[in-house]
Amino acid sequence: MHIPENYLSPATCAAMGAIMLPVWYRAVKQVEIKVKEDKEIVPMLGITTSLSFLIMMFNLPAPGGTTAHAVGAVLIAILMDPWTATLSISVALSMQAFLFGDGGILALAANCFTMAFLMPFTGYGIYKLITYKGKHQALGAFLGGYLGINVAALAVAVLLGIQPLLFKDSNGNPLYNPYPLAVTVSAMGLTHLLIGFVEGFFTMGVCQFVHKLQEGEMKSALSNKSRKDSKISYLLILIAAMISLTPLGLLATGDAFAEWDLKSLVENLSQYHLHQAAPAGMAKGWSFSALLSDYRISGLPEVIGYILCALSAVLIFFIIYRIIFHRKMVK
After folding, report:
1. With a threshold of 0.90, does the pTM exceed it?
2. Could you state, in order of their start, the residue ranges of all structural domains in the chain?
3. Which of the following CATH numbers is that of domain 10-330: 3.30.70.100, 3.90.1150.10, 1.10.1760.20, 3.40.50.2300?
4. Rounded to whole angstroms, how far apart are CA atoms 139 and 82?
5. Measured between alpha carbons, how far is 229 from 270 in angstroms, rounded to an integer?
6. Which of 51, 116, 144, 257 could bond to 90 as cystine, CB 3.0-4.6 Å?
7. Mind telling me which residue stretches traverse the membrane in this protein (predicted)?
8. How distant, in Å, are the alpha carbons of 150, 191, 193, 215 from that of 185?
9. pLDDT digits (tens, 9 = 90+) for 296-328
10. Helix (H) or strand (E) holding 99
């Protein structure tokens, strides 16, 4: 679901940036308020961002020889709140783009709009609607995750699909993403109607685990601080387990739909009965070489590199939040 570089026109990227700037501002301000009220929010930010980053490393096979992944945005919205989810997912997506080359730099705002804003708020709204009066939490979490990722996927499909309609050369050829709406909506829709089950069950499973943990501790003599420390400890164990299992994401071969490099994109055009020619805007577009592109570390086996990339990102998340919100914690 990560839109790569040059698939969107500069105008589209600029418009998405204009939309996301006030969203990011509001998210930061909302999280600052929470940090002032409870310093335990800071390690939870590291945990939630890590959960999203790690679940996105578990690539799954999808129809057509492509791959896809869950996001975890609705899970974070339920455990914390939608604004915290927006900040957490945005930080995870930024790390992926700048350090690992996963998603375009210019397309970062568009990726954040779909996965860090639209998905958590949609999924959380569905969750709250279904769990009215505190009932049906498991069903609410599942449907929130399932429908949330499908709404986000639809938004990606629309952003990609309008490119050949709006941005053409003098001969009517697309300048950027060449796949029309009929292709992008069907391809993204079919993939995420299936992957949505993974998102839904992951959201439901972790939410149920945390809720049962909280219910059990509420019945014990543990103080409020002890309960929070215990929840954080269990979630850290979950993160450690996910880091060790990330190489499973390497088993799925192929790229996600519309996440191909230019050469692969041209080769795949015939599969959708489109003219095999590189769009001029994409061919002349901006390129960025990430330090650890595709989660690989030069000189190390792919599996070891994948694990070390995951571990490094998690540590960086905790350090970033500690530095940013340190002043708020000590007040």
Report:
1. yes
2. 10-330
3. 1.10.1760.20
4. 19
5. 55
6. 116
7. 7-25, 41-58, 70-93, 105-127, 139-162, 182-211, 232-252, 303-325
8. 11, 10, 11, 42
9. 999 999 999 999 999 999 999 999 999 888 765
10. helix 82-100
